[in-house]
Design a protein that fits this description.
This protein is mainly alpha-helical and 320 residues long. It contains 13 helices and no strands. The protein is globular.
Amino acid sequence: MLELVSYGAFFLTVALTYAVIVLGLNVQWGQTGLFNVGVAGFVAVGAYVSAFLTAAPATGWLGGYGLPIWAGWGAGFLAGGLVAAGVGRLTIRLRADYLAITTFGVSVTVQLAALNLQPLTGGPFGVSQIPRPFAALAGEALAFGLANLGLLAASVLVLYLVLEHLARSPWGRVLRAIREDETAAEALGKSPRRFRIEAFALGGAIMGLGGAMQAHFIGFIAPENYLPMVTFQVWAMLIVGGSGNNRGAILGAVLVWAIWAASSVLVEALAPAGEQARAAALQTVIIGVALCAILLLRPQGILREMRRLRPAPSSKTDAP
């Protein structure tokens, strides 16, 4: 029983790290309509910057300053935001598939840089000795898992409340107006380019924070952790949960991660030992089938976007 609870805590903690990343994508796509296919790159930036600042000193890579974990998370947030702002300034005028191609190229560039700049990133060997929250409890699996789950749950709750406040604010209403009708928003004196860059930077910062959280929970990162498959997973989570809905983003992250974990167990149980590596590709097929089913049954996702409209003022007229 204790082992089952420990695994449940581990599962939910990983799912909540993805929920942070999906919330960042929801700011970009769900709120603003920016087609970012380079999610893995921004996640990698946050993870490597946080590891660079907080890991223990080691040979084989430049870094290891031993700073507190909270400092690494903050640095990952800022680094993801700065990189996204820089990319946004250069590419934000692009639309739809052109922006997707550009952001995908940025993601691949980041992953290749992490793979080949070994003196800086550790190269294919990755970065280990990344401090983990509540490391003193690591010997007690249940206590360690529950403590990390509590920390991630509190972080996701705070992030959710902040993003909900922003969505209801004038800034969030402008984003949705630009997404729905850019010409009308510009006619009202709003700058689509400025608001798009701000949304892209905020989404990238949140992705960087999610990458930093993942790095510290796992304790090890490597370039193969940030292949395009990560972007596919995150997009599937947002579409399944409901684009434009922050609660849907969190729900989608948990559900898709559950399908991914269950499919891994299924593949290991059914595939012969010599075919495990090839059969692992079936996980992507299973996620794709689930995604197609959701799109057919619930085109707007499980939780559709909430229309945040102010109630019209009531007017009373006297009967003639």
